[in-house]
Specification:
This protein has 101 residues and is of the alpha+beta class. Helix content is 35%, strand content 27%. The chain has two helices and four strands, in the order ββαββα. Helix 1 packs antiparallel against helix 2. The longest helix is centred in the last third of the chain and has 19 residues. The radius of gyration is 15 Å and the shape is globular. It starts with a strand and ends with a helix. The model has no long low-confidence stretch (mean pLDDT 86).
Length: 101
């Protein structure tokens, strides 16, 4: 994993840190992705609120593109459970990358 930060005086990015991803972490992401792909939840909802967070997931499986977008997915934790599980797994990787520059 590479963590990059924008440079303040240009449109370039600088490498802020990196680390290797373990097999168990990769398997966790794959498992969460498979559950999301099999969940049949809608790709996008009309759930945008004023000043809400935005989460977008894009992935490709077997040559097919898949897309999901949510604004404040925690509003419907049960309906968005596969989406939330996947974003939590990916964010955990980012937190670990930030902890190990």
């Amino acid at each position: 994993i590479e963590v990059r930060s924008p440079l303040t005086k240009s449109r370039a990015w600088r490498l802020a840190g990196s680390r290797e991803v373990s097999r168990s972490e990769i398997e966790g992401i794959r498992e969460a992705a498979a559950k999301l792909l099999d969940s049949k939840i809608p790709p996008a909802l009309q759930d945008r609120g004023i000043d809400s967070s935005e989460y977008t997931i894009e992935m490709c499986r077997r040559g097919r593109y898949h897309f999901w977008q949510r604004h404040s997915p925690d509003v419907d934790k049960e309906g968005n459970a596969p989406f939330i599980a996947f974003t939590d797994a990916v964010r955990a990787l980012k937190r670990k990358a930030n902890d190990h520059p």
